[in-house]
Write a structure and sequence with these properties.
Blueprint (H helix, E strand, L loop, with lengths): L2 H11 L8 H24 L4 H19 L13 H19 L3 H10 L3 H21 L2 H16 L14 H8 L9 H22 L2 H13 L5 H17 L2 H18 L4 H14 L9 H10 L3 H30 L12 H8 L4 H12 L4 H24 L4 H35 L1 H12 L4 H16 L4 H18 L4 H14 L8 H10 L3 H11 L2 H11 L9 H23 L8 H13 L5 H34 L1
Length: 649
């Protein structure tokens, strides 16, 4: 990656952050590195009590957020104002107060006597800080969601009967939401303070020690020569990096700084190039082995082991990327685009020789998670140790130096990346706490079943819409947590397997990143591509349509998430691949040449028949796709023969 591309990436990553003077920047670095050290230490030697571990993580990230994020995102002032200093003092004092009051003895006393008045006021202040710094680091929509649920606690008695409850006063609400592990300090923040932070740090270490450049160059070397090569490079590189980083927008600005200019250079329109990068980067959150913060939360909330989640998500993730690959290939063929000449590409063997050691930690991670069944946190820390060990050896041999700067930079970068995750999880904890306190989850499930009339397709559609609407302003993790809390019980009651129900919600929480009118990934990519944001968003929506089909596929064919016999799983994979091929061809209006209208419609219908497992629907879909494929192939060959005859004459 060139220096200019690095500058673009850095500026995008720092967007909305305060430009601090040197002395404050050093303080922030010191706090961030210290917090990273705390998490690495507890990951190896054992975590503290749950509430204490979560409190240290939350207050550490809130303190950093107070330094980094200005009250208004448009503010570019370097100055820390008097009220910033006041907030920093309050957060520090509040953090000390909570840590002192979260010892086992204090928790026991509070369980008997309840929180005292000081603890209630401290809890209220914490809720305000969580919502404020969620607003600063993520945006206003997540605060609105959290605030609506808080209002619901107090106004429940005045709501329509389906949503009404007895109502709770301030003491009961704060006692439950703050001083128990059912609210702010619940499962979402618990996962963020253990598993997620370790894998965020792993991604930061990998990137700073050369992993980002290596994966990008490797993808470029492998796929650049093929038709539409830069777009396929984007898919491959974004899938590789996204599976580790777990952040769609961060992935866009990292790999997109390189791939989007290449796509434009080879003939793709700017909005199309931006859309490809957005869809590829967003898919990284569903691509094993890491899958981002949401997957760890999914495992905890659903009661599955993380390896079970990874294995179940693997085939749907491959289908998502296959569909995108088909689409960019058809587009390249339609436009007559060529690949990049082999001589202009790096040699794959040389790239592999230089960076092969960066693949080894991923192998260690997969081995520890899948085969030895280590917990994600334990597997993560041993993977980091492996990465650091081999990277240090390589730096000493090749550059004759110890990579101290890279290591410290990665620790700081990782913790800063974790700030929005922490505030999102804390806010989601408020929502979950309200749902548990008021019994809203049961009522919402009853409502979904009632308005769908018990029809599974309608229920799935309503849950999908809820996911997309929530995801328009919320990070994936928060959108998933809220919708899973409300929607999954309804789907399970209608007979959907628990894993399939959670993955269905998880996928649509992610797909909201490429769904207009608030397609966050697409808008980030449009900035790099210099294209119209809304047009890029709609193109990304079109390219990501497989993401809308695949979740329905594994709900109706649970074999795609490895529920069933090996033979049924293999047959489901084959029919699903044919289905996403048909969908891609119909959307792009191309296979070997432009499709007739009836061919395009039949391919769309065929892709839908292949959603639901069953030999009759599968046979209809396969026959339709096969007939149109043969007609297209023969038509192209016939045209070529006529052209050859005319040229010979």
């Amino acid at each position: 990656m060139t220096n200019a591309q690095r500058e673009i990436t850095q500026s995008k990553n720092n967007q909305g952050r305060r430009k601090l003077p040197r002395i404050l920047s050093i303080i922030v670095s010191f706090v961030a590195i210290g917090l990273a050290g705390f998490h690495l230490y507890t990951a190896y030697f054992g975590v503290l009590t749950p509430m204490l571990q979560r409190a240290i993580h939350l207050f550490g990230t809130l303190l950093l957020a107070a330094f980094i994020y200005p009250p208004l995102k448009k503010s570019e002032s370097n100055k820390i104002t008097w009220y910033d200093i006041l907030i920093i003092i309050f957060i520090t004092g509040l953090g000390v107060f909570f840590i002192m009051n979260l010892s086992p003895d204090e928790i026991l006393n509070r369980g008997i006597w309840g929180p005292d008045q000081m603890e209630i006021w401290a809890g209220l202040l914490l809720i305000i800080f969580v919502l404020e710094f969620a607003r600063r680091s993520i945006g206003l929509p997540i605060v609105i969601v959290g605030a609506v649920f808080l209002v619901y606690v107090f106004f429940g008695p005045y709501m329509p009967s389906i949503f009404s409850h007895k109502g709770y006063d301030l003491y009961e609400t704060i006692s439950f939401l703050v001083w128990s592990n059912s609210g702010i300090f619940g499962i979402p923040l618990g996962v963020a303070a253990t598993f997620v932070i370790i894998f965020i740090l792993f991604g930061a270490f990998l990137d700073e020690l050369g992993g980002g450049d290596f994966f990008l160059k490797m993808a470029y070397a492998i796929s650049g020569q093929f038709k539409g090569g830069p777009a396929k490079t984007s898919i491959l590189a974004s899938g590789l990096m996204g599976s580790i980083s777990g952040s769609a927008v961060a992935n866009v600005v990292t790999t997109g700084a390189f791939t989007i200019p290449l796509m434009k250079k080879t003939g793709y329109k700017s909005y199309y190039a931006g859309a490809v990068e957005a869809v590829a980067s967003t898919g990284g959150q569903i691509m094993p082995p890491v899958m981002g913060a949401g997957a760890f939360v999914l495992a905890e909330m659903a009661g599955f082991s993380y390896p079970e989640v990874v294995l179940a998500a693997a085939i749907p993730a491959v289908l998502y990327y296959l569909s995108l690959g088909f689409m960019v290939h058809f587009e390249a063929d339609k436009l007559g685009l060529k690949g990049i000449p082999r001589e202009e590409l790096p040699n794959p063997l040389q790239v592999l020789k230089k960076g092969f050691y960066l693949i080894l930690p991923l192998g260690v991670l997969i081995y520890l998670l899948i085969f030895l069944r280590y917990s994600p946190m334990r597997a993560g820390i041993f993977t980091i140790i492996t990465l650091l060990t081999i990277s240090i050896i390589q730096f000493i041999i090749r550059e004759k130096r110890f990579p101290l700067q890279e290591i410290l930079r990665a620790m700081e970068k990782g913790v800063k990346t974790a700030i929005p995750v922490a505030t999102a999880c804390a806010t989601a904890g408020i929502v979950i706490g309200v749902v548990s306190l008021t019994g809203l989850g049961v009522r919402f499930s009853q409502l979904i079943i009632s308005i769908s009339g018990g029809n599974l397709i309608l229920a799935l559609f309503f849950v999908m819409i809820a996911c997309i609407i929530l995801g328009m302003g919320l990070p994936t993790t928060a959108a998933y947590i809220i919708t899973a809390t409300l929607g999954v019980p309804a789907l399970v009651k209608l007979g959907v397997p628990l894993m399939a129900a959670h993955l269905f919600v998880f996928y649509f929480a992610i797909i909201s990143f490429i769904t207009p009118p608030v397609a966050i990934s697409a808008y980030a990519a449009s900035g790099l591509a210099g294209s119209n944001a809304m047009r890029t968003g709609f193109q990304a929506f079109k390219l990501g349509l497989a993401g809308f089909i695949v979740p329905y596929m594994f709900v109706f064919s649970p074999t795609l998430i490895l529920i069933g016999t090996p033979l049924k799983i293999i047959l489901s994979i084959i029919t699903a691949i044919i289905g996403v091929f048909a969908l891609a061809a119909s959307m792009e209006n191309w296979i070997f040449s432009k499709l007739n209208l009836w061919q395009r419609v039949l391919l769309l219908i065929a892709s839908l028949t292949l959603i639901k497992s069953g030999w009759k629907t599968d046979l209809i879909g396969i026959v339709v796709v096969l007939i149109i494929f043969i007609l297209q192939f023969r038509g192209v060959n016939h045209t070529k023969k006529i052209g050859e005859q005319e040229s010979s004459c």
